[in-house]
């Protein structure tokens, strides 16, 4: 059964010019990109997207980082898309990814635990919520649409 997940190239991935290689990796891995949008997230939008992390000590830094530059948001589709995209991006900490999963996307382009270049929904519930968050409602973080 086909499934959708939300993928994001974070500010460090865009700034590091990794967009094309990441998109090629996505397509070579059998996903289709069904929607795509470039956003510049403001702090309020980041706080809302990452609401589950609001009480964490790293939250203020996360909000600043995620609003520091444009992000590319994509909806990916294939059989088992949610788990397969998480596997392809590798562990959260890019330093750890370089050791344990050197062919993962985070090993290739991530910098550290925070600046890990990509995001992926972690469950079907998260995927639904995150796709809805960016594509089924107007957002104050909206910049432009490329699909
Ligand atoms: P992601 O899993 O996409 O969503 C939550 C983000 O918070 C995570 O990627 C990292 O960018 C960041 N993050 C998670 N844990 C930490 C941490 N312990 N310290 C700093 N940043 C973190």
TrEMBL record:
Nucleoside diphosphate kinase-like domain span: 2-141
Keywords: ATP-binding, Cytoplasm, Kinase, Magnesium, Metal-binding, Nucleotide metabolism, Nucleotide-binding, Signal, Transferase
GO BP annotation list: nucleotide metabolic process
Active site (catalytic residues): 119 (pros-phosphohistidine intermediate)
EC number(s) on file: 2.7.4.6
Enzyme class: transferase
Annotated residues for binding of ATP: 10, 58, 86, 92, 106, 116
Catalytic activity: a ribonucleoside 5'-diphosphate + ATP = a ribonucleoside 5'-triphosphate + ADP; a 2'-deoxyribonucleoside 5'-diphosphate + ATP = a 2'-deoxyribonucleoside 5'-triphosphate + ADP
A single GO molecular function term of this UniProt record: ATP binding
Assigned protein family: Belongs to the NDK family.
Biological function: Major role in the synthesis of nucleoside triphosphates other than ATP. The ATP gamma phosphate is transferred to the NDP beta phosphate via a ping-pong mechanism, using a phosphorylated active-site intermediate.
Protein name, as recorded: Nucleoside diphosphate kinase
Shown segment, full-protein numbering: 35 to 181 of 183
